[in-house]
């Protein structure tokens, strides 16, 4: 018997997903500061939103108290603009003393005490993208050791202010340096995004050997347009990208922006469904202190999360693309699979009729489980 999962939805920019089951053997999940909070360092005028230890403590409290951690959202990731502009007297990176008076190690302890993990950010070049001290070749070992000493659990290595030759050396070197610390630290590489994301410049076999996840494409912004650009690029290049993904190595289409200002509820469901099908890391960048219950329930949807976290770790594909409708498919463990029906129509619902045999499912008996996006809009 096959166990298939079907999700039908005909709505505006709509989607759905369907079901099933799985350092980062499944895509990492958590929260990342960048898209929502950027490089806001004005703690005097914006104390609640500036990049400071308070922000990360607040998010850690929300993750552990509002049901996120139990669903798998365990990483709390610092992005750019956390550090002092100067290294310390021993040449080590240090947190900005005003905004992180307790220091990073103490923050890591706070998270660990709550069953959460801490991610931090650095850059392969002379400076980070925001102009803070970078981690060029000659600083790789000392910075990897510093992060390990602080008991950091994940490291994102950005690529501003470096060239291709330096990146070719730096990204593998950092992988070795992190390993040499003896502390398991998830490693997120921005390298391919700086090299256009495609072969021959990008070698996905190599990336899978040295990084746990990597950013293939440009930064997400808080808009539907941005989500669609990313989705289009990922599926146009699915023949290159899908074989690269698997347990411990993930393509990263960037953060979930659900709960911010740019997406409607339907668009939010669509991002969640497509990120689940893509086996994408699920890093939310939003304000968990003020998130709406609607956005929260999309991000906490158990079916979407279980599809995303399926232990086989196979990245889904677009199997059908017509003018208004696209169908995405992802094989899951236990003979299951997930389908997303995604309507691009924005003026009215799109009526679409299909069958499992039209979607090339072989004859047999299937158990079908529909994620009900809109009760009035589908029929199985
Ligand atoms: C990359 O930068 C280094 C300096 O860090 C320089 O020596 C090298 O020539 C540059 N390579 C290219 C291809 O620009
Ligand atoms: C370092 O790499 C070795 C060999 O690949 C591996 O067995 C070990 O678990 C790694 N250690 C850490 C801390 O990543
Ligand atoms: C890509 O990387 C792999 C593993 O490091 C290596 O064996 C292979 O030769 C590389 N391919 C190309 C085209 O450079
Ligand atoms: C999966 O489906 C195949 C083909 O129908 C069947 O032979 C196999 O027993 C199924 N496996 C499981 C775990 O259900
Ligand atoms: C189903 O298989 C046929 C024949 O191989 C192919 O032409 C068609 O594109 C496939 N359809 C889907 C939705 O995969």
TrEMBL record:
Major subcellular site: other
Q: Tell me which residues make up the Alpha galactosidase A C-terminal domain.
A: 313-364
Q: Name its species.
A: Amphilophus citrinellus
Which InterPro entries does the protein's record reference? Aldolase_TIM (IPR013785), GH (IPR017853), Glyco_hydro_27 (IPR002241), Glyco_hydro_27/36_CS (IPR000111), Glyco_hydro_b (IPR013780), Melibiase/NAGA_C (IPR035373)
GO terms classed as biological process: glycolipid catabolic process; glycoside catabolic process; oligosaccharide metabolic process
Protein family (similarity comment): Belongs to the glycosyl hydrolase 27 family.
GO cellular component, alphabetical, reads:
lysosome; membrane
Q: Where in the cell is it found?
A: Lysosome
Per the UniProt entry, the Enzyme Commission number(s) are: 3.2.1.-
Q: What is this protein called?
A: Alpha-galactosidase
UniProt xrefs under SUPFAM superfamilies: (Trans)glycosidases (SSF51445), Glycosyl hydrolase domain (SSF51011)
Q: Which UniProt keywords apply?
A: Disulfide bond, Glycoprotein, Glycosidase, Hydrolase, Lipid metabolism, Lysosome, Signal
């Amino acid at each position: 018997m096959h166990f298939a999962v079907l999700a039908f939805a005909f709505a505006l920019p709509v989607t759905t997903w369907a079901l099933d089951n799985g350092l980062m053997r499944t895509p990492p999940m958590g929260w990342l500061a960048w898209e929502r909070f950027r490089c806001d360092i004005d703690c005097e005028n914006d104390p609640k939103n500036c990049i400071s230890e308070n922000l990360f403590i607040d998010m850690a409290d929300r993750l552990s108290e509002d049901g996120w951690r139990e669903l798998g959202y365990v990483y709390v990731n610092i992005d750019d603009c956390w550090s002092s502009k100067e290294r310390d007297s021993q040449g080590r990176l240090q947190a900005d003393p005003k905004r992180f008076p307790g220091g990073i190690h103490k923050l890591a302890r706070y998270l660990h005490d709550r069953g959460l993990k801490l991610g931090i950010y650095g850059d392969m070049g002379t400076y980070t993208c925001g102009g803070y001290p970078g981690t060029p070749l000659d600083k790789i070992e000392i910075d990897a050791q510093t992060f390990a000493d602080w008991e950091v659990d994940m490291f994102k290595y950005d690529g501003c202010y470096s060239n291709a030759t330096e990146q070719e050396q730096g990204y593998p070197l950092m992988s070795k340096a992190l390993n040499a610390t003896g502390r398991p630290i998830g490693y997120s590489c921005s390298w391919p995004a700086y090299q256009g994301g495609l072969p021959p410049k990008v070698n996905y076999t190599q990336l899978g050997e040295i990084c746990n996840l990597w950013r293939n494409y440009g930064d997400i912004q808080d808009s539907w347009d941005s989500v669609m650009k990313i989705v289009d690029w990922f599926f146009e290049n699915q023949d290159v990208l899908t074989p690269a993904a698997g347990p411990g190595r993930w393509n990263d289409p960037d953060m979930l922006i659900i709960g911010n200002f740019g997406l409607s509820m339907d668009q939010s469901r669509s991002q969640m469904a497509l990120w689940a099908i893509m086996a994408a890391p699920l890093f939310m960048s939003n304000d968990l202190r003020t998130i709406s219950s609607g956005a929260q329930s999309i991000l906490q949807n158990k079916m979407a999360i279980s599809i995303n976290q399926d232990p086989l770790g196979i990245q889904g594909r677009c199997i059908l693309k017509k003018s208004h409708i696209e169908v995405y498919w992802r094989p899951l463990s236990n003979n299951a699979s997930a389908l997303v029906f995604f309507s691009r129509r924005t003026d009215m619902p799109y009526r679409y009729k299909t069958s499992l045999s039209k979607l090339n499912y072989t004859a047999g008996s299937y158990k079908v489980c529909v994620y009900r996006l809109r009760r009035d809009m589908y029929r199985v």
